[in-house]
Amino acid sequence: MNPNITWEIVAANPEKPWNWYWLSRNPNITWEIVAANPDKPWSWQWLSASTFNPPITEAFKKKKAKEVADLCREGIMKYCWNPERPMKLCSRGLRLGRRLSSRSGQQIVVL
After folding, report:
1. Alpha-carbon gap, residue 9 to 26, rounded angstroms
2. In 3D, which of 48, 57, 56 has the Cα closest to residue 29?
């Protein structure tokens, strides 16, 4: 890892065979650079160990929650032939949760 390599050098020379594993460890790489270049093969292991902290806002949390919900919905719909089935599965889960909570004395809050 060469800390003298800046993002400007990398961006000006996209044809070079950059080692993204080592670039991900570079202290000159900021969260803004990573967010602006999600198509690059970053090493998420090294980025997560970096000293920069990505700004986690309420909008970011909502966006990620929606992405996860959409993925779950797609997965459920992929294996269900009847579009009513996911709702049946969900309602069964809620009934099971209510039964378990009544046995344990805990309360389930449905959002």
Report:
1. 13
2. 48
What whole-number distance in Å separates Cα of residue 5 and Cα of residue 26? 8
- For residue 11, what pLDDT is reported? 92
Is the pLDDT score of 111 beyond 50? no
Question: Residue 107 in contact with residue 101, Cβ under 8 Å?
Answer: yes
Structure tokens that stand for 32 in this block: 């803004």
Least confident of 2-16, 78-92, 97-111: 97-111
User: pLDDT exceeding 70 applies to what percent of the chain?
Assistant: 62
Contact 43, 66 (CB under 8 A): no
Distance CA 1, CA 77 (A): 45
Query: Domains of the chain: which residue ranges?
Result: 7-48, 58-104
- Please state, in angstroms and rounded to a whole number, the distance separating the CA atoms of residues 12 and 9: 5
Q: Quick count: other Cβ atoms within 10 Å of Cβ 111?
A: 2
